[in-house]
Design a protein that fits this description.
381 residues; five-stranded mixed beta sheet; 12 strands; alpha/beta; 2 domains
């Protein structure tokens, strides 16, 4: 047991839920496990270390790394427009995996915008940077973005969804193929009062099960859930990526028995466009108002970077490992297909995210900041 826990503690450096990153806004539930869904014991949000090519910034948090575009931030483009340096913050986990190609392009001086990247392991570090105008764009767990919007009286807008659900049911009991089969069973999951709990309760209810039908056994961290699964072949656990991949790598008797994102989608009725969302990208509205072209360019480059991550798994896995997001490239390659890295913007983003936040609000209003964000929260180019 002690050896097994040590392995998962070492894996903690890989992740920060959603995304998948840990969130710690004051008096607010954490995101993805998005503080158990962005690090194994210390980071889950669910959501960060920069690539080896990035330079450390002395004033940043101890676990943060910063990288700057090679070009002079004050350089004037061919049309005499002075490009601003776009300061982007990310979390160590799936939400930032989709940024690695853009980070590399920036470091090589071939990105359209000039960028400065900072990666941290906890969502509250990013919210502090945004609130103090030290970051222009940040990749955060979805519910944390909503909380920040409420706390800052609308200082930020969400510009895209970068990660869908990263939660999976894991067990050695492969006879379970539907939520209805969980009746009378116990499900182990990390973090009471976090989005994994709210997500599972919503899905159980939508499947016709009551709170008395399924026992939820909470553990303080994802590593504890994995330990239970390794000791009890019949146990069922709810885990975020990349803990799922790490758990299965350590115990080949385990397997994914249900993808919560697929279950969520299957339970939507006609006309509903809600999605299970882990990570979103927000912008400081003062920066958006001053530099709308730079924000639109970021969106274009972010979409291209996400496409690269999903299409060229071998190359992006090497970049992810070099960034320190996941310990080794082979592990990143195994986890990537299950991290649901995506790009949704505009009306599609609004429909998916507003529906998801409504579900969280119905479970616990404080999880989204006490009230649902209004239409001004959503940036529609």
């Amino acid at each position: 047991m002690k050896k097994f826990r040590t392995i998962f503690i070492a894996a903690a450096g890989m992740f920060l839920l959603a995304g998948c990153a840990s969130s710690r806004p004051a008096a607010t539930p954490q995101e993805t496990t998005t503080a158990a869904a962005e690090a194994a014991t210390a980071a889950t949000s669910a959501e960060t270390t920069a690539p080896e090519t990035m330079a450390a910034e002395g004033s940043a948090a101890e676990e943060s790394t910063t990288a700057k575009n090679a070009g002079d931030p004050s350089a004037v483009s061919a049309d005499s427009f002075e490009r601003p340096t776009v300061r982007v913050g990310g979390l160590k986990g799936p939400t930032t995996m989709g940024l690695v190609q853009l980070m590399d392009a920036s470091q090589s001086g071939v990105s359209e915008n000039d960028y400065e990247f900072t990666m941290v392991t906890a969502a509250d570090e990013l919210t502090a940077l945004i609130a103090s105008d030290k970051a222009d764009i940040a990749l955060l767990p979805a519910n944390v973005a909503s909380v920040l919007y409420s706390k800052t009286n609308g200082k930020v807008s969400v510009i895209d969804i970068n990660t869908l659900g990263v939660l999976y049911l894991v067990s050695a009991d492969t006879s379970i193929t539907s939520l209805e089969q969980l009746k009378g069973r116990t499900v182990y999951l990390p973090g009471k009062g976090t989005t994994p709990e709210y997500t599972l309760r919503y899905l159980l209810s939508a499947s016709g099960l009551s709170e008395q039908d399924v026992t939820l056994e909470f553990k303080s961290e994802a590593a504890e859930v994995a330990s239970v699964l390794s000791e009890n072949a019949s146990a069922i656990g709810l885990l975020p990526q990349p803990f799922v991949t790490a758990a299965i790598a350590q115990n080949d008797g385990l397997s994914v028995i249900m993808d919560m994102t697929e279950v969520w989608d299957s339970l939507q009725t006609d006309g509903e466009k809600s999605r299970l969302v882990t990570g979103v990208t927000i912008v400081n509205n003062s920066f958006l108002e001053a530099h709308p072209e730079a924000v639109d360019t970021f969106l274009k480059e972010h979409e291209a970077s996400i496409h690269f991550t999903n299409e060229d798994v071998a190359a992006s896995s090497e970049m992810i490992a070099a960034a320190g997001i996941v310990a080794k490239a082979p592990l990143a390659a195994k986890a990537l297909p299950y991290c649901n890295i995506t790009f949704l913007s505009g009306e599609e983003m609004k429909a998916a995210l507003s529906g998801y936040l409504s579900v969280l609000y119905s479970q616990n209003p404080d999880s989204v900041g006490g009230k649902l964000p209004d239409d001004a929260f959503y940036y529609i180019p």
